[in-house]
């Protein structure tokens, strides 16, 4: 009987080990599949961005070639006029030069009107004038960051987005439903706010990691950077850890809407220095606020 129990126990343990190994193997496969899916999505976004840039370059080249061809025609007429030396040739040359200037003026007026119409965003005609590629540049604290592009099909029945490289967590579809058909400027303005706020929040986290790597640790952040958890160390003999959670309920802003301070010392968040620190994190970019707290020797 004892041998049978030992045999049964060994069999159960062996079976559990097999199940554990299979679960570990499955977990690794799922992780690999997730990483592969993420990589595929990144490559897809890169391809879309490059396609949009290609279409922009093609449209610019076509416009430049048209002007150059017209200019070459004028130059050719000028040479013929110089060779003939008659008044009729000079008159024709003057007319062609005037036509060139008028065409260039009309082109510039159209570009300025389109630039004003969409609120100052860079726009390039695509698909032989049937579409438009719009580029939205983002910046933070005077430094230009990423530029995102989307190609719009200008159809009399309905305006639609053909291709884009906007991150999937930006509510592009919702913004399009709200104003793409009725107010292009409002649509682009809303999209620009979301993109600029996103890259600004991400840039703040990067600056924290660069400028405060020895003082502050980024414990948690998500893809949208609308929740960021930071761990600081309070200056003093105790060297207590302090968790600061930044929440961004308004995704069109780069400043948090709520800051929560936690510590083993329950009285710490309500203390005047840390109340001031909370206000600072609500009113200024995170890296600037933390540098100020370190300068005031509130954190080490």
Shape: extended
Low-pLDDT runs: none
Helix/strand-derived category reads: alpha+beta
How would you write the strand order of the largest sheet? 1-2-3-4
Radius of gyration: 31 Å
Number of strands: 8
Question: How confident overall, as mean pLDDT?
Answer: 79
Q: What is the beta-strand fraction?
A: 15-25%
Helix-strand pattern? HHEEEEHHEEEEHH
Largest sheet: 4 strands, antiparallel
Domain count, please report it: 2
Query: Which range best describes the helical content: under 10%, 10-25%, 25-40%, 40-55%, 55-70% or over 70%?
Result: 55-70%
In whole angstroms, the N-to-C terminal distance is 66 Å
Q: How many DSSP H or I helices?
A: 6
Keywords: Centromere, Chromosome, Coiled coil, Nucleus
Family: Belongs to the CENP-O/MCM21 family.
Organism: Megalops atlanticus (Tarpon)
Pfam families: CENP-O (PF09496)
Polypeptide structure, described:
There is one protein chain. The strands form two sheets. Strands 1-2-3-4 form a four-stranded antiparallel β-sheet. It has a four-stranded antiparallel β-sheet with strand order 5-6-7-8, covered by helices on one side. The chain is built from six helices and eight strands. The mean pLDDT is 79. It is extended. Helix 1 runs antiparallel to helix 2 (87-117) and helix 5 runs antiparallel to helix 6. The chain is 57% helix and 19% strand. It has two domains: 29-185, no CATH class; 212-295. The longest helix has 83 residues, at 2-84. The chain has 300 residues and is an alpha+beta fold.
